[in-house]
Every structure is written in structure tokens, then in C-alpha cells.
Amino acid sequence: MQVTRRQFFRICAAGVGGSSVAMLGFSPTAALAEVRAFKLARTTETRNTCPYCSVGCGILIYSLGDKSKNAFGEVMHIEGDPDHPVNRGTLCPKGAGLLDFVHSPNRLKYPEYRAPGAKEWKRISWDEAFTRIAKLMKDDRDKNFIARNDKGETVNRWVSTGMLAASASSNETGYLTQKIARSLGMLAFDNQARV
Ligand code: SF4
Asked: Is residue 68 classed as helix, strand or coil in its secondary structure?
């Protein structure tokens, strides 16, 4: 039988653990299997995509709470999705540390705005943020849109604003993002994977 280095360590660990508890009269098989089941027994499983890089690994997020109205869901475990075609259950060290990222006190969860000259960032609503972005985009496009070049040829360019899109998007999201940026005439369009 061929075993990988990782499998070899697992077998050794299971053997040591099993022989110790067997000496005490317990069956190691049931006891070893029970540990994993207990940890995730009363959790809600949510599928998602690792936000870090363009590989876009699938993840399973486990949170406590049964989604009832007064229950607060707390993320308590994240692991690779074994059914995901990209990573098949594996995660690199960054993805494996996602739980710390979720609970980091420095994580930005809401849109914030710092007015010109102000020192403080002020929390604003998503509605306010989207309205402000849309207004600034429209003002800039109205002012700088180039419909024709010097030769009178139609070019429909908007070169004074650019878009930086997320890398861990599905094909469908990527397609829609591209369509929106290009339909506005935007030429400066890049992807987070290159950052
Ligand atoms: S787990 Fe690692 S390789 Fe996969 S998307 Fe996240 S950062 Fe990229």
C-alpha cells in the first residue's frame, strides 16, 4: 500500500492514541470518530469562497445558532469544501487561517467616509455609500466621457474612472462585472488577483 507523508503521520497518531485508550479498555474507533462529530454537531453549514486570491477555493463555514430569530450565529470553524472542483477540500495557510480573519477586531464590516479635511472616519449606511458612489461616477462620466476621437470616429471612452473587481468571483459574476464596466465605456478595469 502506498501512503503519503501526511497519511503516514495520521496512521502513527491514530495508532498511538488507539493503543493508549485500548489499554484502558475503550474501543478507539468510536472514540476517535466522536471528536469530529461533536465539534460540528449543532452548527449551521454555509458554503462560500475564500476571499483572498484568484484561486477561489471553496470553503465550508460552520456557525453556532439555528437561524431562529433571537439566535446570534457565531462562526466557529472554517474548512475546505471537499466537493469544490477548485480545491477539493484543501486550503493554503491563508485560507486555513480564515477564522482569525473573520473575528479580527480590525476587520472592516461597514462602509465608512472621511470628509475632506476631516481626521475621523464616519460610519455610513450602505444606501448612502451606493448613492454617493453612483452620483460621483455619473458626475465624472458626464464631464469626461469621450464619444468621438479627433478623427470623428465613435470611441465611447470613459478614461477618468477605473474599476478594481474581486478575483474570487464566479464566471457569471465576472461576466456581469465586465459587461457593466465596458457598457459605461470604462477602459481602466483590473482584477484584485494582480494586486
Ligand atoms: S485558500 Fe489560499 S489558494 Fe485558496 S483562494 Fe484562499 S488564499 Fe487562494
From this structure: coil
Q: Which residue numbers in the chain have pLDDT < 50?
A: 195
**Which alpha helices (H) appear in the chain, and where do they start and end?**
5-23, 28-40, 93-96, 98-103, 126-144, 171-183
Q: How many domains does the chain have?
A: 3
118 and 170, same structural domain?
yes
- Asked whether residue 86 falls in the same domain as residue 158, the answer is no
pTM for the full model? Answer: 0.63
* Residue to mutate, 48, 49, 50, ligand 1, most ligand atoms under 8 Å from C-beta: 50
Residues 126, 186 share a domain: yes
pLDDT digits (tens, 9 = 90+) for 168-185: 777 788 889 999 999 999
Q: Atom 1, ligand 1: which residue's CA is nearest?
A: 95
Which residues are near ligand 1 (CB < 6 Å)? Answer: 50, 52-53, 55-57, 87, 91-92, 94-95
